[in-house]
Amino acid sequence: MKKLLTLLLLACMFAACSDDDKEPEPDYIDPRLIEGSWRWVNEVYTDIKTFGWYDSVRKLGICETISYDTYTGSQFGNRQTAYYRLTATRILYNDFKVGNEYYLDADTLAIKNGESYIKYIRM
């Protein structure tokens, strides 16, 4: 009986513990900061990202990316759509846990891809 009571007590203690590993919610900023269409052109293809406004309460926006062949202008690949949120340094997509670093300089939106930044120009 003593062993059963001890096991029951231990089970209650573990069940009562809170999760201390939760990361604090980041400070989201107004996604309208990057609202609009942005273009990046290289020798093979052109990407157009359009950041739209969606929800002022949750500070949530929608991003749509379309790729075009630079020479022919024809669209290739699928149109990609994702929800996004902004912090002061990151664009967080869909699950809002992982994102890309970015910076905004006048009409240039630079988004980190690997070790370098891709610079999009406001359209």
Major sheet size, sense and barrel closure: 8 strands, antiparallel, barrel
Name of the CATH architecture? Beta Barrel
Please estimate the helix content.
10-25%
Strand content: over 45%
CATH topology: Lipocalin
Count of helical stretches: 1
Helix/strand/pairing category? mainly beta
Query: Termini, distance in Å?
Result: 75 Å
- Side by side, the strands of the main sheet go 1-2-3-4-5-6-7-8
Summarize the model shown.
The chain has 123 residues and is mostly beta strands. It contains one helix and eight strands, in the order αββββββββ.
Protein architecture, described:
The chain is mainly beta and 123 residues long. The chain has one helix at residues 2-16; strands at 36-41, 45-55, 60-69, 75-86, 90-93, 99-105, 108-113, 116-122. It has one domain (28-122): Lipocalin (Beta Barrel), CATH 2.40.128.50. It is built from 1 helix and 8 strands. Strands 1-2-3-4-5-6-7-8 form an 8-stranded antiparallel barrel. The chain is globular. The termini are far apart. The model has no long low-confidence stretch (mean pLDDT 84).
Strands, helices and their partners?
Layout: H1 2-16, E1 36-41, E2 45-55, E3 60-69, E4 75-86, E5 90-93, E6 99-105, E7 108-113, E8 116-122
Antiparallel strand pairs: 1-2, 1-8, 2-3, 3-4, 4-5, 5-6, 6-7, 7-8
